[in-house]
Each structure stands twice: as structure tokens, then as C-alpha cells.
Amino acid sequence: MPAPLDIDQLQTFVAIVDTGSFTRAADKVFKTQSAVSMQMRRLEERVGKTLFIRDGRLNRLSEDGERMLGYARRIIRLNNETIAAFDDQQLEGSIRIGTPDDYADRYMPAIIARFAKTNPNVELYIECEPSGELAARLARGELDVALVTHNPRARSSEVVRTEPLYWVTSTNHTVHENPVVPLAVGRRSCLWRNLACSALDSAGRDYQVLFTSWSATVVASAVLSGLAVSPLPECAVRPGMRILSPADGFPALQPAQIGLMKRPGAPSALVNAICGHIAASLDNITPVGAEERLSASGSSSRRDMRVRPELAVTPAW
After folding, report:
1. Is the domain of 201 the same as that of 149?
2. Whole-number Å distance between alpha carbons of 102 and 128
3. Who contacts 185 (Cβ-Cβ below 8 Å, separation ≥6)?
4. Cα pseudo-dihedral 55, 61, 64, 65, rounded to 10
5. What CATH number does the domain containing 171 carry?
6. Residue 236 falls within a domain, yes or no?
7. CA proximity to 256, closest of 191, 158, 162, 159
8. How many Å apart are CA 98 and CA 105, to the nearest integer?
9. Kind of pairing, strands 58-61 and 230-233?
10. pLDDT digits (tens, 9 = 90+) for 214-266
């Protein structure tokens, strides 16, 4: 019977990936850098694969290292869930979480389901509002945690996920070819709206904002109906939408980032537990391989999101 993998080695491996270096990982796992290097050599020997490739002064994950990362996170998470299941001092209480309606629709069901399994005595209150409103409510003490669109110019949040931001139009319409591009976007404070308008201004492309709403459903409906073009993150692309490229006259956009905000003074144990769970869950969602993605020229299939093998929300104004 093969010898089991060492949880401690796997935790160090994940820490290296998350922090970006052996040195920072050593601080995170409270080990010396030489001990961290030794653990990785032993882990590589155990699986018989090279997990890191030397690139100048940096170490980057090899293809096998990328494969190992998913399994490592799964093993660590299952280990933690097992310990929690037999913990007589489980977390108790209630926590108020705010999220835009699109993130609630796409991400929260799985996040809540998994958290509830290991924390049955914690009551979760979920409220949906735009990111700006959530930040204000957090400041007023009306929420404990908020999942928001990261916007460093407007608020401070910890980035827990980054994905491409695309121009999308209807597969069955040609509204994107109009001399004046009609847009469906969020309110004036929406980061994605501002990025989109600035990009079109820089490209010298004429446009007109025809639909304004913080509701992801309204924006998606305008796009699918062939009434407007909109900037949407990768996870929000739906069946019937087409991704536009610079070849279509639409400049590339900066990536979309999702951030976490915590209320100062909120119950630390509960807040840290749910925030760690949310961050880990979002980190385990990966897009499909390049060969399966929608081509920029327009496939009617949805650009799906897949979860890494170990497991198994649209614009946030």
C-alpha cells in the first residue's frame, strides 16, 4: 500500500503557491526557508514528479505542480472538515453577509452549502445589494462580511478572485456593428462601466449608454435581446452571448476582481471562518481549457466555468 502524503508538506506547498515565494511561505507556515525547501524535495520524491521549475531567480509551478495544487487543496480542505466534524467546540452564532445579486446567484449556493455542512450551528443572513451600498452598510455596522467588486479607488478589499472582463453581445444580433455602440451597464459608480467607457474613448469608438441598472438580470436581458453590448466577467457569459475582440473594434479590458471586506469588531472566529471558506471556494473555480473556450469570432455555447476535480455570479455593480 502506498505511503500517504504528508499534510504538513501539502500545506507548505499551497503556502508557496499562495504567497508566491519560498521565503514568504516559510513565514506563513512558521518554518525556516531551508525546512520549506526540504519539505518540497521530499514531496517531489514522494510523487516522483518535479513540482517547481527554476526560472531565473524565481520558482514557478510545473505542469505536474499545477495538477498537484488542486489535489493538495482538496486534501487539506477535507482534513479540516473532518477535524471540524468531530470538534465539540464548533462555531456558533450568526453572521451577516452582503453580496451583489450576480455573485449570490453564481457563487453563494455552493459556498453556503459547504460551509453549513461543517458549521451547522452558524446562522447565515445573506443580503444582496450593489458593491458600493454593501461597503456603506459594512461601515455602518449593518453587515459583517461583504463580497464586492474590488475597486481600490472606492474601497479597500482583499482580492480573492481575478478573471477576464469581456465585451459581450448577442449571438443572434449585430448591434455591436452599429456606428454608435449601445451599452447596457451599471450605475455611474460602477467600475466596469467606467473601464468600458474609458476603453471606448481611447479607441475613438462612439457609444451611447441606453440601459443603466445594478441588476445583473436586467443587463443580461438587454444583451441577449440584441439591444446592447455590455462588459461582463468570464463567469457571467451566458448561452446566447458572444465575446467580442479587438478584431471587432472592442479594445481589451482590465481583468475583473472580486474582493472581501470585513467589518472591524465583527466576531473574529466567525468572520475568519467564512472569509477563509469563501476565498478557498472561489480559488477552486477554474475556467475550461483554451481548446474548449468560446472563440472570439463567436460560438453560441456558453463559456462555462468548471470546478477543479476536487469540488463536486455576473456583473457586481
Report:
1. no
2. 9
3. 192, 193, 196, 197, 209, 211, 212, 219, 230, 231
4. 140
5. 3.40.190.10
6. yes
7. 162
8. 13
9. unpaired
10. 888 889 999 999 999 999 988 788 899 999 999 999 999 999 899 999 998 88
